[in-house]
Amino acid sequence: MELTFDHIVNGWKNYIFPDENVERLAYNRAEICSECENAKPGTYEKLMKDRTLKEVEGMKCSVCGCPLSTKLRSENETCPLGKW
Asked: Are 84 and 63 in contact (CB under 8 A)?
């Protein structure tokens, strides 16, 4: 699935205004991403404290460059490697 502006906005919205169902989805995805060799430290940690997904706080996907705290919360987003 291609990353679109709508996916980015959805992820940021869900990061700022948490929803229980989205947080559950993001938590399941974070378990996978936290073990992935493509999850790399980014510059986001100083800007984006993650209240619930500490295992990916400040990290980005080195494949697509997205901050994981928002990518994982974008309901229609997919992993670029097909891991979730």
From this structure: no
Q: Look at residue 17 and tell me if it is in a domain.
A: yes
Distance of CA 39 to the CA centre of its chain: 10
pLDDT, tens digit, 9 for 90 and up, residues 53-79: 999 999 999 999 999 999 999 999 999
Q: Which of 27, 34, 37, 38 lies closest to 66, judged by CA?
A: 38
* Predicted TM-score of the model (pTM): 0.88
Indicate whether 79 belongs to any domain: no
Write down the H helix ranges in 1-84. Answer: 5-16, 20-33, 68-71
| Domain total in the chain | 1
Q: Which residues pair with 40 in a beta bridge?
A: 60
Nearest CA-CA partner of 56 in 5, 2, 4, 15: 15
Distance of alpha carbon 44 from alpha carbon 24, whole angstroms: 22
